[in-house]
């Protein structure tokens, strides 16, 4: 279903064949997060065996991947009160008490984050077939703002370590896929088979996909991590994303899908299917390295995952500190 010279036609055909509009009613604002219910969270809680926790977040600091594209910059952290002011006693507090305060300025999608349902449109339509201009205005996302997901994302997570599963066969002893490598459904299924039964994907899961690019980047320098060539999902995986009924999928890359994209002229065509047509939450720039090492050591690739976005009213994305508990 990839016609390299016809991105628009391929996208239109894929959207028509794989679409969740109306599945949860005309007023739905959650998309695939509807697959996470109370029973799913109870199932996920049962996966906790040792209590070990893993943060899947990159650092939020000035040494980040952003280079200014579309006004995306790295976080700017500023202190407004420090110990120096406290020592000099000029903070205006009584009886010797002092304190420190700070703030941060950053794009909401500059580091580890979720793409909300108002982030991407398909030919002028937002999630569930709404007009894009009626959903996201200068005041923000009026319908599917990221705050709607604030209490939803607690579920079973599954690591698919495609880098370790396929890397050695591609000449990578480090378990890292090369930039530009398109991960197909066959690659996903081969990874699941290699990892074992605990990696079976079920309704309501969140898949954490490790390509190994983040590990390579931190070893070699950011380079073109933000927006440049990367391993990632092939456009051809859209049917798998649809039929698997996952609640979300997150990767260790900037853009989730393979870059360069698989059409002669295109920009993130799988986003165009996943978010506005499937209602699928996408996570980007996650750091699964410590979790992946643990999974490789003990053979347990599923875990309790909590990944709540900040409830920023009207936002189309949010920073997140995902926590995996094994």
TrEMBL record:
SUPFAM superfamilies according to UniProt: Putative cyclase
MF (Gene Ontology): arylformamidase activity
Name of one Pfam family that matches: Cyclase
GO biological process annotation, one example: L-tryptophan catabolic process to kynurenine
Matching InterPro entries: KFase/CYL, KFase_sf
Superkingdom, taxonomy of origin: Bacteria
Protein name in UniProt: Cyclase family protein
């Amino acid at each position: 279903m990839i016609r390299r010279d016809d991105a628009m036609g391929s996208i239109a055909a894929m959207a028509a064949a794989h679409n969740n509009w109306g599945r949860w009613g005309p007023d739905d604002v959650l998309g695939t997060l509807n697959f996470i219910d109370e029973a799913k969270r109870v199932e996920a809680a049962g996966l906790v065996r040792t209590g070990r926790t893993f943060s899947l977040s990159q650092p939020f600091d000035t040494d980040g991947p952003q280079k200014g594209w579309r006004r995306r910059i790295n976080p700017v952290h500023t202190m407004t009160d420090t110990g120096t002011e406290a020592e000099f006693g000029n903070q205006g507090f009584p009886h010797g008490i002092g304190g420190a305060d700070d703030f941060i300025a950053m794009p909401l999608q500059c580091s580890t984050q979720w793409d909300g349902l108002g982030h991407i449109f398909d030919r002028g339509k937002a999630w569930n077939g709404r007009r894009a201009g009626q959903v996201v205005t200068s005041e923000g996302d009026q319908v599917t703002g990221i705050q709607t997901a604030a209490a939803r994302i607690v579920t079973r997570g599954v690591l698919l370590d495609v880098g370790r599963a396929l890397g050695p066969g591609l000449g990578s002893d480090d378990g890292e896929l090369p930039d530009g490598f398109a991960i197909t459904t066959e690659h996903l299924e081969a990874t699941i088979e290699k990892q074992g039964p605990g990696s079976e994907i079920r309704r309501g899961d969140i898949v954490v996909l490790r390509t190994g690019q983040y590990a390579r980047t931190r070893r070699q320098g950011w380079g073109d991590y933000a927006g440049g060539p990367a391993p990632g999902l092939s456009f051809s995986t859209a049917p798998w994303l649809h039929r698997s009924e996952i609640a979300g999928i997150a990767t260790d890359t900037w853009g989730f899908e393979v870059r360069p994209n698989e059409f002669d002229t295109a920009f993130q065509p799988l986003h165009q299917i996943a978010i506005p047509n499937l209602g699928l939450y996408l996570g980007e720039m996650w750091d699964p390295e410590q979790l992946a090492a643990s999974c490789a050591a003990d053979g347990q690739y599923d875990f309790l995952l909590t990944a709540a976005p900040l409830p920023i009213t009207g936002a189309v994305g949010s920073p997140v500190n995902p926590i995996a508990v094994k």
